[in-house]
C-alpha cells in the first residue's frame, strides 16, 4: 500500500469518512494524516454504535494502533479539536503540525458576511478568512497556542519516517475536486484552497513521488450544498422517488442531489491522477444491496452502474459503499488490482 491519498471527486460529502474508516480497520496503516481545508468539512462515521461527524480528527482514528496527524495545510479550530479529542479518546496518539493556521472567533464572525455566507453559501466556520490571513502572513499558528503545546509535531518528518520504514500512510482529503479554489465548478462558488490529491499530499508534507495510490471517491448520486452551479441537479420529486434525503454534517443544510456526471467525474480523475475509484451510496442505485459486503451480493442493476463508471472513467472501481456503516462496503481490490 505505501502512501495512499484519498480525495473526493465531486462537491464533497461523497462519503470519504466512511471509506477511510473502513480502510483504516482493514489495511491497518501505521499513520493516518488529515489533509484538506479544515473544519468546514464533516466526515460522518459510525464508531461503537455512535454516529460521529468529525471536522478535525482523522476518521482513521477507529484504527486504534494508528498514529494520527493533522498536516500544516489544515486549519485548526481549537474548540472543535478539543471537543473531538474527548469524543474519540485519541489523546496521546494525535499530533498537530506546529505550523497549522488557527481559526479565531473573529474568522468565524467574518465568514458570516453577506458576500461569503450569503453569496457563496460558505459553511460559516471561518475557513476562508483564516486562509486569507495566512496568505497575508498575519495568521496565528498552532505553536502560538499554549493549550496545543503537548500535541505539536513536525508532521512531514513523522509521516516520511513511516514511509522510510516501508510502513503504510493514509492521507485523508476533505471536500472534493469540484470545490477546488482553482479547478472547482465554479469560481467563486468554491472553497478557499485547492482540494485535489497533490494538495492533500503537500498539506501533510509528502512529496509527489512518494504517493503510491490515489483513491477518488464518487457518490452514485452527487450532492452539493451552498450556492453555485450544479448542472446535473435533479428535481426534489426525483430525489424523493430515489429516497435521497441528505443534510450537511457541519451546517445541517439540506443537500441538493443530482445525477452522476461522467464528464465532470472524468475531469476529477485527471486532476487527481486517480489510480482507484470508490463509489459510495451504491445502495441508492439498487436498494436491495443495502448493507452488502461481498461482490456476489451485487445485483445486475448495481453491477451495470459500476461497469459503466469504470468504462467511462477508465480507472478501476475497487471499493463500493452499500450503506452508511463501516462494514457496509464491498472490497474488490483483490479482483481488480
Ligand atoms: P466532506 O469531507 O465534508 O466532504 O465529507 P465526507 O465525504 O466524509 O461525507 P459526509 O460524511 O459529509 O457525507 C456522506 C453521507 O453519506 C453521510 O451521511 C454518510 O453516513 C453517508 N454514507 C457514506 N457512505 C454511504 C453509502 O455507501 N450508502 C449510504 N446510504 N450512505 C452512505
Ligand atoms: P467554505 O469552505 O466554508 O468557505 O464554503 C465554500 C463552499 O464550499 C460552500 O458552497 C460550502 O457549502 C462548500 N463546502 C465546504 N466544505 C464542504 C464540505 O466538506 N462538504 C460539502 N461542501 C463543502
Ligand atoms: Mg461532509
How would you sum up this structure, described in words?
The strands form 3 sheets. A 10-stranded mixed sheet has the order 7-6-5-2-8-1-9-12-13-14, with helices on both faces. A two-stranded antiparallel sheet has the order 3-4. The protein has helices spanning 16-27, 78-88, 105-110, 114-118, 127-135, 155-164, 197-203, 236-242, 262-272, 300-313, 333-336, and strands at residues 3-8, 31-34, 43-47, 50-54, 67-70, 94-97, 152-153, 169-172, 213-219, 223-224, 256-257, 276-280, 317-321, 329-331. The chain has one domain (3-331): Adenylosuccinate Synthetase, Chain A, domain 1. With 337 residues, it is an alpha/beta fold. It binds guanosine-5'-triphosphate, inosinic acid and magnesium ion. Magnesium ion binds at residues 12-13, 41-43, 249. Inosinic acid binds next to helix 5.
Strand order of the largest sheet: 7-6-5-2-8-1-9-12-13-14
- What is the terminal-to-terminal distance? 12 Å
Tell me the name of the CATH homologous superfamily: Adenylosuccinate Synthetase, subunit A, domain 1
Instruction: Supply the CATH architecture.
Output: 3-Layer(aba) Sandwich
Secondary-structure class: alpha/beta
Radius of gyration over C-alpha positions, nearest whole angstrom: 19 Å
- In the CATH scheme, what's the topology name? Adenylosuccinate Synthetase, Chain A, domain 1
Q: Tell me, what is the CATH class?
A: Alpha Beta
Silhouette: globular
Strand content: 15-25%
Helices and strands, in N-to-C order?
EHEEEEHEHHHEHEHEEHEHEHEEH
Number of helices: 11
Number of domains: 1
Mean pLDDT score: 97
Summarize the structure.
It contains eleven helices and 14 strands.
